[in-house]
Design goal:
- It is built from six helices and twelve strands.
- By secondary structure, it is α/β, with parallel strands linked by helices.
- A hairpin with a 2-residue loop joins strand 5 and strand 6.
- Helix 1 packs parallel to helix 4.
- It is globular.
- The two termini are about 30 Å apart.
- The structure holds zinc ion.
- Zinc ion (ZN) binds next to loops.
Amino acid sequence: MKAFISVDMEGISGLVRWADVVTNGLDFARNRRFMTNDANAAIAGAFDGGATEVVVEENHGIEELCDLLLDEIDPRCRVVRGAGRPTATTMAALDASVGVVLFVGHHARAGSRPGIMAHTVSYQQFKAVRVNGRDCGEAEIFTIRAGELGVPAGMISGDQVVIGQLRERAPWVEGVEVKRALSNVAGDVIPPAQTAAMIRVASRRAVERARAGDLFVYRDEPSPYRIEVELRHDPGQELLDNLSKLSEFQVNGRTVCTETGDMDLGFRRIAYLGYANQPGVLRY
Ligand SMILES: [Zn+2]
């Protein structure tokens, strides 16, 4: 069985503030090691549970989605990294050959309080992302997409908020609360040396349960999906110019709507709105 691990950074053990996850942050180099350690724990657990193949996909938007330390990553896995992947960015390796999806270091959706570094896709630009009228975070988008492919979600590590949000849709997922969110930038954290063992156990359990057919495929979101992205600021002229040439987007004040039949395209359109404010950028 192949395990797919999506690794983000805001939900990594020990990290609580934006300076922890940006390139010029004081401890960024060290924090990349924490990220790699959490990923390694999930990889080891997946193999413990009987995975025969593990593919890790980098999902943190800094440094063009290249944050893991490749000389420290478990050599048994494969890593998909770098920006501009041909399908939905951060889900390029998620296909029907995957047996279970594991989330490492994920964070709560935009607007969550508390919720460590809560956002959806773009903190700077998006106030909310809704699918069929309901707020939706990144791990939920992945879970919807995995469901389209017949793949179950099995585990998530992060704070208590993101675990709770994913469990609203997928109550069967193993949750590893590596820190308790106290606000958007404060938390009660378990030292990374201890969370590694917790992540490893949960990852093992998720793969064992997937192999036993004890996880469910999420199919409760009706498609086509009506996706709304609520921007933080009024859209600028460049964004309006670009969107006026793409009839699949409708602008209503600060809210941009689109409708898609699948979440691969849906995620690409959401992500596009994060960079569509550059003149003449018309591809997603
Ligand atoms: Zn991130």
